[in-house]
Write a structure and sequence with these properties.
Blueprint lengths: L11 H22 L4 H9 L6 E2 H8 L3 H13 L3 E5 L7 E5 L1 H25 L1 H17 L7
Antiparallel strand pairs: 1-3, 2-3
């Protein structure tokens, strides 16, 4: 055992995972009932503003590796939830957008999702949730660059 290693329960990655799991356990049942994985939901959410996105930009927005996104898009396209077309200047570039069916599913699940957010806000308090979101954004920004080790 490494005596200099902090306790597992005090690990920042594990604390973030525990918090994520505590949040996601409220969203998963409805996603599962709709036959969606969490990753597929992230893709639908990212496309939810109606604009087409290049696959590489979509991968970055959803924190998915390109091979995973390719598989997810194939599945979503087979279900008729997204539309994919080649880019106008480069056919190797895929442009993705929600299909009308995908937009309908997003609206339906989005309404449920907003009820969950409302309940979370009630549980945590508006100010606490806002501060948490702001702090998480700041941590992500501050740790973007490599650390000086």
């Amino acid at each position: 055992m490494n005596a200099s290693l902090r306790p597992f329960s005090r690990s920042l990655p594990m604390a973030l995972m525990r918090a994520r799991e505590s949040v996601m356990r409220h969203f998963r049942p409805k996603l599962q009932a709709a036959g969606l994985t969490e990753q597929q939901w992230r893709v639908l959410r990212a496309l939810g503003h109606g604009e087409e996105m290049e696959a590489t930009r979509l991968a970055g927005a959803t924190y998915l590796l390109a091979p995973s996104l390719t598989r997810i898009l194939r599945d979503l396209e087979a279900r008729g939830l997204v539309l994919r077309r080649p880019g106008p200047r480069d056919a190797r570039v895929a442009l993705i957008k929600l299909s009308p069916e995908g937009a309908t599913l997003l609206r339906e699940l989005g309404a449920h999702s907003e009820r969950i957010y409302s309940a979370i806000e009630t549980r945590l308090g508006r100010e606490r949730l806002s501060a948490l979101m702001q702090e998480l954004g700041a941590v992500a920004q501050d740790l973007q660059a490599p650390l000086d080790l």
